[in-house]
Every structure is written in C-alpha cells, then in structure tokens.
Design a protein that fits this description.
CATH superfamily of chain A: CoaB-like
CATH class of chain A: Alpha Beta
CATH architecture of chain A: 3-Layer(aba) Sandwich
Distance between the termini of chain A: 29 Å
Shape of chain A: globular
Radius of gyration of chain A: 18 Å
Oligomer: homodimer
CATH topology of chain A: Rossmann fold
Structural class of chain A: alpha/beta
Strand order of the largest sheet of chain A: 5-4-1-6-9-10-12-13
Largest sheet of chain A: 8 strands, mixed
C-alpha cells in the first residue's frame, strides 16, 4: 500500500480527472450447477491496466469475471460471472464514466438452456446448443453519447485485419491487439495498438510494462 | 516449511509407508485455442487432502488440473489440463502406488472436434458436439491388481443414492460424497463417507479439517 503510494508519486498523472470503467478476466457461462464454458484469460492484462490507470491518476471501476487476482490499490472492483451480468453491471455504471476499456474475454456464446441439476453422464455423445451473448463493447459504443471506447482483440491469426476491422466496425477510438499465443493466460504480452491514424507495435514485455505503454497512448489520444 | 515440519511432528503418522496417487482440481477441455469447458472445482479439497496425507506420513503424488494453489510441502505435483492427459499420467504412475484417491472433477465430456483457430462469432446459434471422456477412476479400479481406490461424488441432489451407487458400480473401497452447494468451489465442506459397512457424515468444517477426518477414516480401512 505504501509502496503503491510511492510508485504513484513518481508516475506522471496523465489520466488525472478521468473516470475509467473497465472489464477484465474471462466470463463463465454455466451449463449446469457444476460445469460451464470459460476461456484461458487470467485477467492479468486487465488488472495490470487498471492498476496503471489508477497510478496515472484515473478513478477506476473494474468489472471482473472469475479470476484469482488481488484488487489493485485504489480500484473499485465488481465481481461477476456471466456475460449477461457483466453487461448489466457495465450498462448501469457507464453513465458515470468518460472512458470504457473492454479487456475482458467475454464468452461470445452461452448455453441456451442451462440445467438446474447436474447433468448425469449417460449418453456417449452430447450436443450443447449455444446462443450469442450480448456484445458489451458494441452496446456501449453505440450509446447516444458513448464514452471514449477502447477495445481489445485477441486473435490466433490475421491480427491486423481483425483488430482494424473491430476498430472500424464498432467505431472505437483505440484497439489493443495481440495474438492469443503471445499473451493470453501468460505473464508477458506483445501487443499492437491501433487507432484512426495507424498501428503502433509495443515491444514484448511484462503485462505491467505493456499496461504503462497502453496508458501513455490512451493519454495522448485523450489530451 | 518449518511450520509444516512442526505440524507433521504432531500428526499421528497413520499413513506412514503408504504411496498415494491423487487427482485434484477441474479439467479443461479446449473448444479452440481460447475457449473451453471446465467446472467450478477450485482444487482446494484435493490439495487439503494431499497435504493431510503427506502430514500423516504418506508419499503423495498429486495430478492436478488448472488451479491457483500452492503445492503442499512434500507432495510431488504433476500439472495437466485435459481429462485425457490426466488419465495418461495416472495410468502411467498408478503401478508405483498402493492407494488411488480420485478427487478431481474430471470433465465427463470433451468437444469432438476442437478448432485449431479461434472460432469467430458469426452465427446466432451454435451447436457443440461432445463425446464421453475416459472414466479414470473406473479404469484404475478395473485394473487386474488395482490399488485401494477412493472416489469422490459431488451431486446436486440424491447424494446417498448416487454416492452408494458409485461405490458399488466401480467397486471402490470408499466414497466421499458432498452436495455441490455444500462445498464445490468454496472454503468449507460438508461430506459423508461411504464404505462397505455404512455411511459416516462428518461435521461441516474447513476443507483442511474435513481432510483430516477423511485421512482418519482411510487409515482405519487400510490398517
């Protein structure tokens, strides 16, 4: 805590006065009381970014899926499980914020009919019907008076195409892209930042260092 | 570490000389490089039991699915993700052990055809075809010279019926049953032990205390 205060003293307060709403981690879509669909997101990139934003002077609200990470000092954290709950919390909170950063790896699909009882194993084959989840970032970005919206894109290939497509299609101000194999679930990350003017690769580094680079770019666009 | 040694000194060495193979945690069955099916198991019950067995003098090998827990002192840990890999590791190691305790919440099904590329969200509906995973405990218990086999049963209802059915069907020596809502994913647990002679409910307690009770019952059956 004291260490955080000292760190914060030596950080440029480039986000002072900004109110930032963020999501982080995976979501968990229940199949029954025991099983569910999730993804390999550890939440580390989002938590590192929340910490870096707070150290840069922002007021940060972090909506987190199920992760095993401590809350960064000074950050207000709201824990959720499913994409639908994450959307409800975000849409309820977004009006009080002027930046929205969607880092969470939100499940694109959820089971159509989750079971209230544990499904017994009997059949050799089983088929699960899934339906599309809400697109939280698209919903926020298409509000009448949207906040400054930043997206994340984790792809297994064709990063430039997908990330720039996301920037345009969802009318975002900035997208942070990475290849799944470069960062997801791990300690380090290698990202490319995309905005209306171009693409800016950051060097491979710890997620804490990458977060500092993202904050610097975000601040340059905001100020 | 020193604390563990002191604790171990005051534990009755009721499992001295026993070689115990255990599984713990959930398994993770990949749908694509990012997404997968898992369950709410935290691994805490299995890790607490591994620790209690080691403190009681056993040599413990712990095969763990993806969890965020430190390895108990003195325990040999092998990390795996999928049920198939867990089975391979267990079948390879079981010959050198005289007790097998299956605590892991192994996924009963896995996707038939996981995708090597991240599945793009396009369709409104999606259907996933699943196929049965191997039943690791049943495979071990049906070996020509099986170890002393202990199963765990986490059910959402009808605990006695399912747990006693498991004891008989898989020809186990002991089953530890609990209701999902009583323990899975949490800090405490309330279990019932089943063996050939009857059912023995343990009081609701921390998973560490429950583990001590399970070790005492196990030792009484082994000695």
């Amino acid at each position: 805590e004291i260490f955080e205060h000292i760190c914060a003293r030596f950080q440029p307060r480039v986000l002072a006065g900004r109110r930032i709403l963020m999501t982080a981690g995976p979501t968990y879509e229940a199949l029954d009381p025991v099983r569910g669909i999730t993804n390999i997101s550890s939440g580390r990139m989002g938590f590192a970014l929340a910490r870096a934003c707070a150290q840069a002077g922002a007021v940060v609200t972090l909506v987190s899926g199920p992760v095993s990470l401590p809350t960064p000092p000074g950050v207000t954290r709201i824990d959720v499980k499913s994409a639908q709950t994450m959307r409800d919390v975000v849409m309820n909170a977004v009006g009080a914020h002027d930046v929205f950063i969607a880092v969470a790896a939100v499940a694109d699909y959820r089971p159509v009919a989750p079971s209230t009882e544990k499904i017994k194993k009997s059949a050799d084959r089983l088929s699960i019907e899934l339906t599309r989840n809400p697109d939280i970032l698209a919903d926020v970005a298409s509000l009448p008076a949207p906040p400054f919206c930043v997206g994340f894109a984790a792809e297994s290939s064709n990063l430039d195409t997908y990330a720039q497509g996301k920037l345009v299609a969802k009318r975002l101000k900035m997208v942070v892209g990475n290849l799944v194999q470069d960062g997801m679930g791990g300690i380090n990350n290698q990202v490319v930042i995309y905005d209306a003017k171009g693409r800016y690769p950051l060097p491979r580094a710890s997620k804490e260092e990458v977060a500092t680079g993202i904050v610097a770019h975000l601040a340059s666009l905001l100020n």
